[in-house]
Structure formats: structure tokens, C-alpha cells
Amino acid sequence: MRSWIQREFLYRRRVYGVLFVAPAMLFFLVFSLYPTLNGFYLSLTEYTLLKPPVFVGFENYTKLAGNDQFQNGVKVTLWFLLGTTVPKWILSLALAMLFLAPFRGREFFKTLYFTPTLLSAVVVSLVWKLLLDPNGVISALAKPITRDPDTLWLSDRILTPISLIFVDDWAGIPFFMIIWIAGLVGIPRVFYEAALIDGTTRWQAFLHVTLPLLRPTILFVVVISTINSFQSFALQYVMTRGGPSDLTTTIALLVYNYGFNYFRMGQAAAMSVFMFFVIILITLIYIRSVRAEETSYT
Amino acid sequence: MSQVSVKRFTLPAILVLILLAATVSGCVAIPESQPTEVEDAGPEPVTVVYWGHNFTPRVELDEKYIAEFMELNPHITVEYEAIPTDFDQKLRTALAAGTGPDLFAQWNGDIGTFYAQGAIAPVAFEAIGYDSQQAFMDLYVAPENTLQGAMFDGKLYGIPNELSIYGCYVNNRLFEEAGLDPDTDFPATWEEMLVVAEKLTKRDDEGRLVQRGFDFSWSNSVWMFLEYGAMVRQLGGSELNLLTPEAEKAMQYWVDWEANGLGGPAYFEGQMSGFIAEELAIECDMGSWARPGVLEAGIDYTVKSVPIWENAVNQNHFDIYAYFHMVNSRSEPAVQEAAWQLAEYLDSHPADYLAHTGLLQARVEVVESETFQNIPFLDVFLDQMTTSMYSPRIARFTEVADVLARVRDRIIVEGMDLKESMAIGQEEIDSILSETR
């Protein structure tokens, strides 16, 4: 009797569990899994939007190998990735540590510095596009250094990619600063006190206490910032449209151009799939490396 | 007891209400709305979904004429939607999903791809009351030019609801400040434009460019294609063939323009903005539609024809472009017919559209109207249309336009040799066009 009641209870719990999870699963299936699988399928077709897709096998992938624009897109994306991840990690962590220390007006400055995170990427891009105009404020402020009356921040081959990286870092650092702060606050003070008793310097405490205990936060910051950088679109679309000379055409922008402007949805899907696997690969490498370090400590 | 009394009163009350309702409805009913034998034998009800751009003055007129059209054709219901933003993307996506509109107004840049993909249907002339295509074309001024943008294999695939061409807007004040007369000193050729623009260009004490004489549209590759293509065709070449002296001359002109500090991609903010801010003395990237904005800015202006080369072999100014009413080939035949009827009804009031929206349809009747005659400089735009061409009606027009912009940028931004950059561009264009065949 007792076991029957237990079985009935477990059965009901499972049924209710499934029912509770079902809406979220349905949402995931319809809005995540289906589009992803459909993207895979489209990458194997020639699809102009205006006619039904025609299956072409892996032709779109082989075309990518010889596509100069795609290769340029990969190069641009990787440079952008480098410029918008490493500085973000370091500077946002430095700022988080700065804002953890007590000083007058700390909360005010923290809030002020967090403000860019509240703006949409499009707004950020439009504002910076105006600021970086040859006749804009930045040109005027930088004139003593550049000695150029019309600095071409968004049309020079060297300055344009750097300008975009700077804007992305400016907008992204405050968000990661908050994440670091959350991670840092979670480290018990007792570890630092023990380290102090052992005679460690502040730098040693940072290396051997802070960083190891921040590992889950590091993983989050690294993975999310990498994915964001890979998928960067609004900044390039609004500020430069990928120019000049495709120097800021990231893969995400190229996917948009191929899909919606060039009517080459099959090739656009192949590029997306490529990007999908690269992101997965990089994420897995990060997770593995962090876990390996965790194991070495235990 | 109470239930019985309720039932006793309810039944007569319902009967009285029914009788009353029948009497009232009989009194107020419009005889035409009642089903009759004549209606039963009439055409099947049809619904036409129509998408247009959200240009407020035109939307108001569209709504007025759509209501009139539905009154005249009670069997046709029009579902009209003025798309607020991203019209191109929404239209392409909807056509892909099979949920596209039956009738839409779209510019000619996409028409080559739409035709190549079989997405649009030819105009059904009989359905709109014309014996032949020629009879319909005769409604237009210089139809061999003005309607060419929707012509494929001798068949017309669209009815223009806006025909346009760029003209050069001249800021009279800036001309006079430079000691120039807008009427007599405006350059008729591209070669003269260099000299005149230099006189109108101003730099401040620090060397900052504060006023440009003239500048091209650099920011959007499609416009660059149109302007560059038109300049190449003036010389008798084709911008799809970049490895020609004509194409090289036109590209060199653009490159020199930037190199000589007269303007360039870094300064071009978009159509109108420089001219409205009076930082640009001559703006040749605006059609007749720009007049209200220029007037609102309080600028004393003149409009002149876009220059041509000294040794031009034809009088092609910047390209003609148009928004055509096109019909979705996937729609049912009866819907297609109704869609063309609606398009023709909307486009058969050109004087009203010109008066209230400034949009020109170049029909003979509107050109002869008082409205046309009373709008300054409209004749300049129309004159250019009678001798100019459309940009090539090729599939993947936008992609080819982007190639051309890259050719330019490689030379200007990366310092690549002009011929080398053009050779790379030619390869890319050939590859794109070979895939469309």
C-alpha cells in the first residue's frame, strides 16, 4: 500500500514536472531549435527568398572557401574579437576592483559609469557616429594630438576599425564591471585575512586568492563577451555599413547583406552555421581550460 | 410561481423585439446591401492586399482613392498597409514566406531580381481597360525612357506611381557670395564642375573643410552606382564592364575629387543634409521630392540639369528611377486582375498626387496640367527624363553596386592602383552575373 502511494506520488510529480516545463520547452522548440535546424537546412540549399529552396548539398560551404568577402569577414571579425574581449576583461575587472574600494561618491560614479549599458547598440552607434564626424567633438578635442583639422575616424583604413573597437569597449565594459563586482563580493574576506597572516602581498593575494575564486565569473565573462563580439552587427551597420572598403564588415554584417540584400540566403545560412560552430568551439575550449584548472587545484 | 411569470413575459417580449428589429431594419436597410439576384450573378468577392511606403501625404491620398475604388468595385476589398520602416526587408521576407502582398509599390532596384525569380506578373492591360500595351504607354511622356525600368522582353511589369531623376539644387546665396551667377555660371560639364566647385569650396583658418562646392553621394553604394553608371554611359560605355577607358575616366574623376580635397566619403552625411545645412553649394542627389524640405529650410535655390561630359555621346544625366506598382505572381489570377485595376485607379490621378505629395508620374495629362506648370523647376527634371536611362535592370543589382563601391574604396582608402582595383571588381561582377544566369 505504502509503495503504491509512493509510486503514484512519483508518477504525479513527473507528470506535473513535465506540464510545468512544457511551455518553456515548447518556446525553446519553436523559437530556438526549429530556426537553428532550419538554418542548417537552408545552408544546404540555394535559396533566393523569392523561390522555394533547392537542395545543393555542401556547395555553399565549398563556395565559402573561395569567397574573398567571407575570408575578409573572418579576418575583420577576429580582429574585432581580439579588440573587444581582452581589453574588456582587463579594464572591467580593474574598474570593478576600483569600485569595491571605499571612496567618496563611489555609488554615484558607479551608477554613472554603468549608464552606457542601458543604451541600445543603435543609440550608442548613432551618438558615436556624430561624435566621430570629421567636424565633430572628438576631432576638435584630439586636434592637439592628431594635428589634423579633419581626422577621418570612420573612413580611414587604420582608424575606423580602432574607432569601432573603442566604442564597443566603451559600451560593454560597464556591464562586465558589474558582473565582476558580483563575483568579487562573493569571495569571503576570511581568505584574504588568512593570506595576509601568511604574509602575501596584494598582488599575490590577487593571483592566488582572487583569480582562482573568480573562476566561474571568468568563464561567464569570457564566454559572453566572446559571443557578443562574434555577433556584433548594429555597431557596424549603423556606423560604417561595413566600410570603408569592407574593413569593418564582420561575418554578422556579411550574413545580413548576403541574406537580405543579395538574395543569397543559402550562402548566408552557411556563414551563420560556420559562425555557430566557431562560437561553440571557442566556448568549449574556454570551459575545458577552466575545468582543467579547477581539477588541478583539487 | 415567479418562474412561470418570467416565462409568461419573456416569450411575448422576445417576439415584440424581433418584430421591432425587423421593422426598424426594414426601414433603415440600404437596398443595395441586401443580397439580390444581380449581385449573385456578379464577380466573386476578391481581397487585394496592398503595401506601400509610409510617406504620409501619399498615404492620405491612397486611403481616399482606395475608398473610392472599393465603392466603385464593391466585390473588391482592399487591405492597405503603409509599412513604417524597413520596407525592402519586410517585402522580401514576406515574399519568401509566401505571405507577400498582392500589390506593392517598390523601387526599380529590385525589379531585375523580382523578374528573374518570376516573382512579379506582367501588367494585365485588358483588365485595366486598354487594348494594348502601346495604348497604355502612350499615356506617358517619352515612354521609351520613363517606362523602360519595368520593361522585360518587351513586356511591362509595373505601373509607375513615382518617377524621378536627380537634379542639381543650387544654393543661390552661396553662389553669389563666391561671385558666381547660378544661371550663367552653373557648370554644364563634369570638367567645368571641378573649376566651379573649387571656387565654392571654403576652409577655415585651421584648414577644416567648412563648405563644399559640390559632392557626390558616397555613403550608400547604390546611389554611387547610379551616379557612376550614368557618368560611364554618357561616354558610351557600360558600368558593368569596368575595363574600359570610359569606366576608368569616370572612376578617376571620383578618386581625384577626394584627392583634391573637394569632399569625399568622410564628409557625405546623406542626401539633403549638407545642402539643408548650407554646407554644400550644389547637391545633385535630390529629385523633385526634395523641394518642400529645401523651402522649409528657407534656402533660395535654383535647379539645374546634372552635368554631362564634354565629349558625351548621349544625354544621359543621372539615372531615372521609379517606384512601380508591381503585382505578386503568386496571387490568384482574379486577385492579380483586381490588383492591377487598383494600381491603375490610384495612378490615374497624377495631378492630385503631384499637387499634394510632389510625386511625379510623368503622364501627359499631368505635364499639361496647371499644377505641373506652377511648380518651379519641374520641367528641368522632366527634360532630363526624356533623354536619360534607367540603371541596368539586372538581378542582384544591389550586390553589383556594392562591388563598385569596393572598387572605389580600395583606391581611395587603401591606395590600390585604379586599374588593379577595377580588374578585381570586374571579376566580382562577372562572378555575380554568371550565377544569376
TrEMBL record, chain A:
Residues 74-286 form the ABC transmembrane type-1 domain. It comes from the Bacteria. It is found in: Cell membrane. The chain crosses the membrane at residues 15-34, 78-100, 112-131, 170-192, 213-234, 268-287. SUPFAM superfamilies: MetI-like. One of its GO terms (cellular component) is plasma membrane. Its main location: membrane. Keywords: Cell membrane, Membrane, Transmembrane, Transmembrane helix, Transport. The keyword Transmembrane helix applies. Belongs to the binding-protein-dependent transport system permease family. This is Sugar ABC transporter permease. It comes from Caldilineaceae bacterium SB0662_bin_9.
